[in-house]
Amino acid sequence: MSFLFGSKNNGQKTAQKTRYYRLEGIPFFLLSPEDRDMKMKELSTLLSQAERGYIYISRAPGEYEFEGTKFPIITSSFNLITEKEMDLETAEPPKRPKIKKEHAKYLQTMEGYARVLVSYRYSTRIYEGALGRVDFKQMNPELFETIIQFQKIPQLSVRNYLNSLEMKKMKMAKYANVSTAVEEMLTSGTQLKKDIDEEAAEPIKFRFIFVIHAKTLQELESLTRELMKTAQENGMLLDTPCCAQSELYNFEGGVGYRISSNVSLAKFYPLVGFNLVEPNGIFLGTDEKGAPISINPYLATNGRQNPHWAITGTTGAGKTTTGAALIDRLRRAHGEIYVIIIDPMSNYNRFFTNEADLNIVFKDGDYVGLDPVALAAEGVVSSGDIADFLIESYGIPLELRGILVSQLEQNRSLKELTDNLESLASKKFATEYRKLENFLLNMTSGADKYVFTGTPPNLKGKRFIILGLQTEDTRKKRLAATMLMLYAYSLINKLPRSVEKLILIDEAHFLFEYQSVAKIIAIIYRTARALKTSMITMTQLIQHFNMNQYSKEAWQLADNKLILKQEKEAKDDLVNFAHLSEEEVDYVLKSSRGRGILRTGAITTRIQVQLTEEEKQRWRTE
Ligand SMILES: Nc1ncnc2c1ncn2[C@@H]1O[C@H](COP(=O)(O)OP(=O)(O)OP(=O)(O)O)[C@@H](O)[C@H]1O
Ligand SMILES: [Mg+2]
């Protein structure tokens, strides 16, 4: 090397270029413990290979496009900024608002205001995933940045540091005056020693930096308060450093004094990407971080299949509307689907007047024309189950069950059955037949005849069927809805297995009230899966799913459980039946429309069902 190369030149030669790499968000909270461990190992390797730099995470309002409609969501992007050459996809430097003026505790930017906060203390215990949980619950900032500044340090200097801690410890034991700060240092020192000795970890200095952006100073203040609060809940104390705002904002300055290891740092889960987006999924809404939730009920991968739903929410919580969104979007994305809606409040009749291939409203005095004997003959559910439905509906004594079942098996229509009973009853020693005949007479006389006699609607060749009821008569509602449900299911059984199908039953709570009807629903939940059929039932309270063994079974068989706002009385069931945590119970009791807990498979998330303005107009129920 020639002497002519001055130090300046030399410096230029060694100065490395800052490189930007794209990292992928990892859904840590949705992963199994084994997968989580594996991802954390990858992350700690990454930190160690990069040696020094920043993990830069930014979250800003974005859009999720579903079938040509754009929904507002929050998008997260993850970058690694380092001078090292890495085997990763490169990225553009992030676009950030430029600083206009620096104040002591905030910045004025070209787009508003910003504030830099630094975490300066941690609780003695590192909460796994803490960084992924530091977030906003009330308001979402325009732009929120999280920066993890890190730098590998030599093993030797760490050994010295650990030794000095040992000395401190001994001294303190002598004087017995342990300050919290020192105690925390000792705890993290012990952890670090453990990481290095047992996990071959590498020591790293680090600092967490948070940047909030807001349109106004007032907004900046409330966001600051909120961020400090959620950070504290996760064991991190934040501070707004005075006078270093622009330096920190611009990724300048040293890394600080806190020492940890690549292994421990990974446990903070900096790369939390929360998207619950399934292939060909139906966009439903966003989770508490604003990330999209998109579920495909017909997805069958790795044995995971999630066709069935249970939706519960107090009056006005948004059940019917959520069902409308689900069906409308499903029909747009899965064009070949068959949909049958049983609509006891006749809402869907109104929502989908133009789209439905068959849109029927049964009013008082209209004949539904559904014959349970004929349906029993079709074998969709057994004669025994139909018999139990009639027994419960007509208070038929149980000792008559045997002959009822055999009559259902021998006849092919209600007319045939009643004629047959009549002739049997006229014979000698036929009091049992006479008794049964008397009970069943109610089916063909009085108000019930509207349900069981007449001509049924023809569902053949129709893809989108809405069977609505307009009556205040709860009994009629229950009888008619049960029959319509059986009729719908008999159609489903005749359709090709390979096509996607769906049955939705709104206001199912008064169906679950009758054990025999609940049983029919449970049977559909049980058997529909093999027919590529999705079943959705909706009830006002979680208790309605906890009413009898069959309503419970329906709940258990629902792969997607959506719990919207509940009343106080639901508390016990939310804890003991739905197994929600105390925090989740609180959330559900206080929630507003379209907001709740979604449990899909093993994943539990909070959801806000998103509607476009147009959908809100179309599906108004109040
Ligand atoms: N996600 C949402 N976003 C905005 N508005 C909504 C949302 N969900 C429901 N709403 C509105 O709230 C009102 C009540 O909703 P909906 O009728 O779906 O409630 P429900 O749970 O079915 O009540 P009920 O038990 O009385 O039938 C509707 O006018 C609807 O437009
Ligand atoms: Mg409703």
TrEMBL record:
The keyword Lipid biosynthesis does not apply. Gene3D superfamilies: 1.10.8.730, P-loop containing nucleotide triphosphate hydrolases (3.40.50.300). It comes from the Archaea. InterPro entries: AAA+_ATPase, HerA_central, P-loop_NTPase, T4SS_component. It holds the Pfam family DUF87. Residues 305-613 form the AAA+ ATPase domain. Keywords: Plasmid. SMART domains: AAA. This is Archaeal conjugative TrbE-like protein. It comes from Saccharolobus solfataricus (strain ATCC 35092 / DSM 1617 / JCM 11322 / P2).
